[in-house]
């Protein structure tokens, strides 16, 4: 007489059945993905509404897309901010996650590289730049000054002649004043000339400040981690000159796609990657 399986045996069997099914799914998924092709996405305005959290619909769409192509994200924000927008499991939900334009790089959930302004320039050069900039600001005669004239970030310096902790009203006033007196652009030309040997990019954006970072530390920075891919599709909303997707969109290494919303990102990806399998 055959004895019935014990509870432990039944459980073990169920466990292996699940394992085999998962493995089959995994292999089917990976086999279906075209080698050498990656779809790379900006975050704000491309996968989410600006500064908002990803919708469940878009989240599900990206999960489906990943079954067909390798997927990555590249955002200007740090990983904490990107995780707030795309979810806590973002480094596992995408094959590649490049935060701070790729200064911090994750692949398959693991950190594969990090770079910072501090280690790139070294303390001496950094100090020389900061000292000069603070002296310059001290000598500026503008209507008002507040505090935090230089904000030190991991991949850039943000310089503000009025100081970052001014009120919204003071911001608006400075913006108007700057339009007439070109405080920022004059300051940038002085710094650009004085520190030309450091190969820095100066980017005037927003109302009260400008960013300073090494040449090439825009979104194209992340491409160094994608040497294995010969077909890199990039999707972004700010692909015009001066926008933060411009350089990677224009790069010879990418096929650039301009989108205006997450819905359009999904539409374009459906046409490009999903319609063939239907
Ligand atoms: Mg964007």
Automatic annotation (TrEMBL):
Binding residue positions for alpha-D-mannose 1-phosphate: 51, 153, 164, 171, 209, 211
SUPFAM superfamilies per UniProt: HAD-like (SSF56784)
GO cellular component: cytosol
Primary site of residence: cytoplasm
Active-site residue numbers: 42 (nucleophile), 44 (proton donor/acceptor)
Keyword terms of this UniProt record: Cytoplasm, Isomerase, Magnesium, Metal-binding
InterPro entries for the chain: HAD-like_sf, HAD-SF_hydro_IIB, HAD_sf, PMM, PMM_cap
Required cofactor names: Mg(2+)
A Pfam family: PMM
Record keyword Lyase present: no
Pathway given in the UniProt record: Nucleotide-sugar biosynthesis; GDP-alpha-D-mannose biosynthesis; alpha-D-mannose 1-phosphate from D-fructose 6-phosphate: step 2/2
Reaction(s) the record says it catalyses: alpha-D-mannose 1-phosphate = D-mannose 6-phosphate
Record text on subunit structure and interactions: Homodimer.
Protein function: Catalyzes the interconversion of mannose-6-phosphate to mannose-1-phosphate, the precursor for the synthesis of GDP-mannose. GDP-mannose is an essential sugar nucleotide for the synthesis of D-mannose-containing cell wall polysaccharides (galactomannans and glucomannans), glycolipids, glycoproteins and the antioxidant L-ascorbate.
Protein name, as recorded: Phosphomannomutase
Taxonomic placement: Eukaryota, Viridiplantae, Streptophyta, Embryophyta, Tracheophyta
